[in-house]
């Protein structure tokens, strides 16, 4: 339809003034495709506000046009955006999920969710182990597995230091890979940078801010650090996929101090590369990172060994508590630390287990229909 041409090839996915209209059109088109092609799926699974309209368009219209077989499953990835659409999709869906059990509990009281708790489940996300694979990664200097993690990470750290002009030395290196938004705990990130430098470590941050004021703020910090700690800290305020691989491989720790985090993939990718996550206990971070000092029993209940450092508060004291223990462990017990790197690489954070949980949910949705 020529009148809809302004919906396509607009140079971005989000952030235009007709986002809702564009995604609404997409949802209509998807359902119309199913109808016209005669394809009758058992499950239609839609995600977040952008495909939420599928839930009610299907139930209010397309069921009557002949698409009667499907059950609708709806997943919330982040309740911060499009709550009105999410609330409506929650109402119309047959089953609903979010991307970790803890986030499911954290949002249970939200009015978009609370009337639908009977059909709401938390299933942790996975990562793709083929994309994030230190044994087959063109962006790092030496391929490695858990067996040669020490050598592999040493080579990656040297390459990272060289690329960014940091001091070539065996120092604890903290990596931060994130969007710079309030959700991600930017005040804690800033504090952690200074704390790491005080402890003699190095810091590499990769990320940018959608808000120009925050971007500007971090640009000022980058300039300041370039003057005062040029061989210890580097802030790369852009999107750079190859560099992210090198940071995951070259860092000793990956810091994720989010204020809220529905699932978080950063900590899972970090572990795939043998980097130790240092996280705030929230959402999926709590469900996937088990503190080496405090979470032995909780890890064991999941069939796991402890795999990182975590903290509770959203203040400097909180982040210091986890970061200081992490850096001290690096300085004081390298053999123990290296065995921890090996251990986290051997944990499975792929889609293997979550996929089975989703299959179970799909079967339950079909059963409730019959």
Automatic annotation (TrEMBL):
Signal peptide range in chain numbering: none
Pathway entry: Glycan biosynthesis; starch biosynthesis
InterPro entries: Glyco_trans_1, Starch_synth_cat_dom
Name of the protein this chain belongs to: starch synthase
Organism in which the protein naturally occurs: Stylosanthes scabra
Catalyzed reactions: [(1->4)-alpha-D-glucosyl](n) + ADP-alpha-D-glucose = [(1->4)-alpha-D-glucosyl](n+1) + ADP + H(+)
GO function terms (MF aspect): alpha-1,4-glucan glucosyltransferase (ADP-glucose donor) activity
Keywords, sorted A to Z: Glycosyltransferase, Starch biosynthesis, Transferase
Cited PANTHER family: PTHR46083, STARCH SYNTHASE 3, CHLOROPLASTIC_AMYLOPLASTIC (PTHR46083:SF5)
Domain of life: Eukaryota
Domain Starch synthase catalytic: 7-108
Gene name of the encoded protein: SS3_1
């Amino acid at each position: 339809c020529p009148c809809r041409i302004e919906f396509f090839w607009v140079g971005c996915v989000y952030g235009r003034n007709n986002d809702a209209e564009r995604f609404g059109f997409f949802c209509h088109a998807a359902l119309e495709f199913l109808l016209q092609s005669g394809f009758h799926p058992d499950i239609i699974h839609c995600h977040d506000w952008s495909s939420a309209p599928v839930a009610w368009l299907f139930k209010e219209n397309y069921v009557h046009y002949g698409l009667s077989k499907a059950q609708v499953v709806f997943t919330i990835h982040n309740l911060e955006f499009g709550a009105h659409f999410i609330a409506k999709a929650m109402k119309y869906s047959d089953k609903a999920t979010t991307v970790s059990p803890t986030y499911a509990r954290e949002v249970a009281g939200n009015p978009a969710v609370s009337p639908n708790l009977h059909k709401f489940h938390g299933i942790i996300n996975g990562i793709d182990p083929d994309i994030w694979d230190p044994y087959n990664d063109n962006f790092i200097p030496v391929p490695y597995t858990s067996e040669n993690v020490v050598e592999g990470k040493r080579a990656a750290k040297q390459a990272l230091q060289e690329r960014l002009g940091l001091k070539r030395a065996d120092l604890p290196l903290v990596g931060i890979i994130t969007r710079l938004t309030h959700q991600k705990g930017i005040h804690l990130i800033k504090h952690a940078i200074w704390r790491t430098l005080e402890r003699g470590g190095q810091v590499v941050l990769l990320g940018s801010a959608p808000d120009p004021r925050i971007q500007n703020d971090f640009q000022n910090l980058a300039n300041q650090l370039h003057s005062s700690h040029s061989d210890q800290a580097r802030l790369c305020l852009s999107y750079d996929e190859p560099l992210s691989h090198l940071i995951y491989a070259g860092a000793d720790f990956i810091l994720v101090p989010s204020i809220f985090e529905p699932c978080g993939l950063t900590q899972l990718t970090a572990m795939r590369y043998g980097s130790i996550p240092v996280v705030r206990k929230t959402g999926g971070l709590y469900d996937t990172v088990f503190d080496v000092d405090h979470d032995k029993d909780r890890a064991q209940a999941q069939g796991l060994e402890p795999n990182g450092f975590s903290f509770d508060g959203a203040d400097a004291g909180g982040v210091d508590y986890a970061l200081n223990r992490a850096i001290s462990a690096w300085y004081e017990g390298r053999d123990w630390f290296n065995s921890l790197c090996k251990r986290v690489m051997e944990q499975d954070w792929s889609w293997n287990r979550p996929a089975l949980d989703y299959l179970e949910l799909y079967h339950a949705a079909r059963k409730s229909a019959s």
